[in-house]
Amino acid sequence: MNSEKALVWSLRIITITIVLVPLVYYYFVSGSLLNFIMPSLTIPPSIRSFNPGSLRITSVDYSVAGNTYLLSIGVYNAGSMGIGLKEASGIISAPSLNIRGRFSLQSPFFLEPNEEERIGITFLLESGTESDLATLVSQRLPVEISGGATLVLDSAELPLNVSISSWSPW
Amino acid sequence: MEKFRILYLIGGILFLIVSLISGAWWELIGGGASKPVLYVGFSPFDFKAELLGSQIIKASPLMTALFLSERLLAIFGSVTIIAGSLLRGKTWSRRLLNLKPLTTPIGFGAIILIGAILAVPLVKLLYPYIDQVLPDLREALIPYASRYLTINLYLITHINGSIKVRIVSQFTINFWLALVAGALCLAGAIIRRRETRTELPPPPPPPA
User: Fold this and answer.
1) Does the beta-carbon distance from A164 to B161 stay under 8 Å?
2) Are residues A101 and A121 in the same domain?
3) Does residue A152 sit within a domain?
4) What are phi and psi of B162, to 5 degrees?
5) Which of B69, B91, B95, B164 has the most A C-beta neighbours within 10 Å, making it the best mutation to test the interface with A?
6) Per-10-residue mean pLDDT for chain B, 208 residues long?
7) Mean pLDDT of A134-148
8) Is A92 found in the same domain as A122?
9) Burial class of residue A77, CB neighbours in 10 A (0-12, 13-18, 19+)
């Protein structure tokens, strides 16, 4: 009976020791109560200065084959981290002109900071005419965009779905 | 060997393995599973928060001490269970059997659920518009509740629209293994209690 009591007390003492010793050790190592309690937050400078607008369009050219438009867009990474698109596709429409078409990125691209590249996007006009499209661009009318993309940020990938009801990208 | 000792032994060994290996019990993955943009991993023994592969939050010494204590307690609890289940002839061996493998994952799961529910009101104190920018943040944090986080673009870019980002909040295999270890120990405890009751002599008849 006494040995059982001793065992129970030994277990209790070991448990209390296991809890207290690390707390006491880390408290004295940390130097102050604030350092002891507060976790440290470190955001790398490249992430801190990240701006979604750092991917800039420098030029836009296009060629037409039937109702398919091949857009050649010059893009420049003015930011501090690598950025790109692995895939992107969706629908662009302008209800005011009854225009609707599908777009898709031809090939993935990735730009290191201060790099520039030309990317290809195909746009298949499903409803509307070429003159409607010209009106849309010249009058800078808002468009609806829905689709999916995989954004590449440095070595990470971010699959996302976009749904924009009114945006004037011009 | 009695049935309850076998259950305790398997549960103890399983929980010892889970206590010794590293890895999160719950994780929040924002972006692709293989190359996430955001990764938060949490267990009773460790915490990790990475943004684009860089560690952004380093656990405080208090958290590190608590994680170390919890790991040592889990190892100690498992070792005592294993010893208690093997020391069959000793009457005091039952004192070594405990339900640490059950209480740890249940307590951890409760902390995750309560944390996910309380996270939005707490973040709202710092960023009042958080529920307008991220309307389904709570669902994204609660395990298995949602696989997407909606980001309302209007408050950030003045564009009428939203982005749905893939996000996964889930318990890992380590958590489920710990819970299985706990369930085995609980089953052992129930069987042991039944056996103890049957071993006791019948109560004396009430006085007339």
Assistant:
1) yes
2) yes
3) yes
4) -145, 160
5) B69
6) 91 96 94 89 95 90 96 96 90 88 96 91 85 89 90 84 93 97 96 81 69
7) 87
8) yes
9) buried
pTM: 0.84
Q: Are A108 and A144 contained in the same domain?
A: yes
Q: Do B55 and A42 touch (CB under 8 A)?
A: yes
Tell me which residue range forms the domain holding A103. 49-167
In angstroms, the Cα distances linking B77 to B14, B99, B195 are 12, 8, 23
Is the pLDDT at A169 greater than 70, yes or no? no
Within 8 A by CB and 6+ apart from B142, the residues are B113, B116, B117, B169
The CA distance from A66 to the nearest CA of chain B, in Å, is 31
Residue A98 in any domain: the answer is yes
Distance CA B116, CA B42 (A): 13
Are A150 and A70 contained in the same domain?
Answer: yes
Tokens 């040995």: give the residue: A3
Average per-residue pLDDT for chain A? 88
The answer to whether residue A136 sits within a structural domain is: yes
Identify the pLDDT of residue A45.
76
> What residues of chain B lie within 8 A of the CB of A164, using their CB?
153, 159-162
Q: CATH number, domain at A66? A: 2.60.40
Which residues does chain B have within 8 Å of residue A108's beta carbon, measured at their own beta carbons? none
- The pLDDT assigned to B1 comes to 76
What ipTM was estimated for this complex?
Answer: 0.81
Question: How far apart are alpha carbons A75 and A53 in whole angstroms?
Answer: 11
Q: What count of other Cβ atoms lies within 10 Å of the Cβ of residue A109? A: 17
- Answer yes or no: is A44 within a domain: no
Res A88: pLDDT: 94
One-letter amino acid identity for A136? L
> Does residue B164 belong to the interface with chain A, where contact is any CB pair within 8 Å?
yes
